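Issue 218. Parser rejects a valid record. Input:
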Amino acid sequence: MVVHDLIPLRTDTTSRKLKLYFQLYVLNVIRRAELVVTDSEATRRDLAELAGLREDRVRVVPLGVDFERFSPIAPITKQRYLIYVGRHDRYKNITVALEAFSQLDDRELRFRIVGPEHSIETPILRAHCSRLGIESRVDFASYVSNEDLVELIRGALALVHLSAYEGFGLTVLEAMAAGTAVVCSRADAISEVVGSAALQCDPQSTADVVAALNTVTLDSTARMDLERRGLAHVRHFSWDRTRLQMTEIIREVL
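Output the parser choked on:
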């Protein structure tokens, strides 16, 4: 069995029905599996705590990045905007990102929020932009093509990812592969994935996020250093490596 994350059991924003489904059904299925494969050591710890799995019953196999799709194009032309890619769930801390964005020194900067809208959370985010007086500088795009998404990430000064919880965090690695600096939360799985190649901050501290975003938007030397470190770091995450590890595990079980 492959378990990417246990988000419904780790956040308080999940519907009661989904939480009960995980508690009463998913955990029992996990406990019956001969072997569980997961993306990160953080999720392995969650499986031990929430499902009671012994360490020898869980294998960690990191995900990979599609380097043919996500790659930098020289010369890299950065535009004056930040980008967030993902759903609008509350644990993603987009409200904190918007609050920090409203306090940045560069008042010409734009923020592009790309991802499927949420019937409850998206109107809250839009209203938050209005209260902060930044609605004219924040662009919501519920859908963009695969090609346009890569171009948007590639052209951004930084990808902002302040999620309080992730099972892995593939989006941050894809941004690194595209040659874009990453500002992310200091959360277990995300910290594990990015190492020292991203600028990490406390996702609950607006001041901490402001400082990080001012660094990547105003200090080109610091930003380009993050871009270089990201490109070097992300090379450790290939789908070929993932395939080989999964093949070995399947052969062992069979």
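Fixed in the parser; the record now loads. The mean pLDDT is 94.
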